[in-house]
Amino acid sequence: MPLRVNCQCGVALNVPDAMAGKQVKCPKCQKVIPVAAPKAAAAKPAAAKPAAPNPPGGQDAMAILLDSAGLKKREGIFCPGCDRPLPTGSAICVGCGYNLQAGSKIEGFEVETKEFGNKRLAEAADMMAREVETEKRLLKAGMPWWMMLAIILGVLFMMSAILLKMDVNTSGKVSSVPILAKFQSASFGPVIAFSVGGAACLVGLFALFAIQATAFKESIQQGLLCTLTVVYVFYYMFSRMKSRKLGSTVAIFWISAILAGICLGYSLPKI
């Protein structure tokens, strides 16, 4: 039957009876603990004492106390390294590589329970790590900061243009600046189209800056070519869509450019 070994740090170990007279290492404090041999049975058996009456239910007081606390008595052999239940007669734990006979772990063995030495704690750590990785992927999959900034600036441009037009209708005062005076004298249709086109221009410009920044990350030569050569920027967009993951950025650039061209082409002749 398994032998019970207690360490000074408070850890209790169950080791096979084959370890009697040998030494084991405490998995918590790494202290070597001698395993005492079981005491030999007395030559003459002592007179049997009458068994104490069991409390109601057939359980002793300790079993009732453990049950009330939600604890269950464990039976069998457990690994001192990872607390994994082991079959009878096991010499090495396949979970953490703990050698029960040598009292230490096998060097070079990949420990399944990592640094905790407990299966449930290791599973909880793995779950937390997966949640962190999932959160990182969701943040990366969200809207990039430059696009958010471009949208905010575009909305501010639209609001400024519309408020400028509404101000002249409310107060009747026309700006002394000729360009603003022409803008205020135009009808609402061209003004709204102009504001949408200007906002689209800002988004497209930021998308172009993002593509150029990606080119500079690849190499200084690619960045300079994309900055100084208009034709090469278009080549770079479509040649790096998959390798540099520029698909969404290129799509934003072209949608913004087309929308800006339509809106500004309609509004500028009428302002």
Number of helices: 8
SSE order, as H and E?
EEEEHEEEEHHHHHHH
- Major beta sheet summary: 2 strands, antiparallel
Return the structural class.
Answer: mainly alpha
Spatial ordering of strands, largest sheet: 1-2
- Topology, number of strands: 8
What fraction strand?
5-15%
Q: Mean of residue pLDDT?
A: 77
Instruction: State the shape.
Output: elongated
Separation of the first and last Cα atoms:
98 Å
Q: What is the total domain count?
A: 2
Oligomer: single chain
Radius of gyration: 39 Å
Question: What structural keywords apply?
Answer:
271 residues, elongated, mainly alpha, two-stranded antiparallel sheet, two-stranded antiparallel ribbon
Structural description of this entry:
This protein is mostly helical and 271 residues long. The protein has two domains: 1-36 and 72-117, no CATH class; 142-270, no CATH class. 51% of the residues lie in helices and 8% in strands. It has helices spanning 61-68, 119-141, 145-171, 178-185, 188-218, 220-228, 230-239, 247-267; strands at residues 3-6, 12-15, 23-25, 32-34, 77-78, 85-86, 98-99, 104-105. It has a two-stranded antiparallel sheet. Helix 3 (145-171) packs across helix 4 (178-185) and helix 5 packs antiparallel against helix 8 (247-267). The radius of gyration is 39 Å and the shape is elongated. The model has no long low-confidence stretch (mean pLDDT 77).
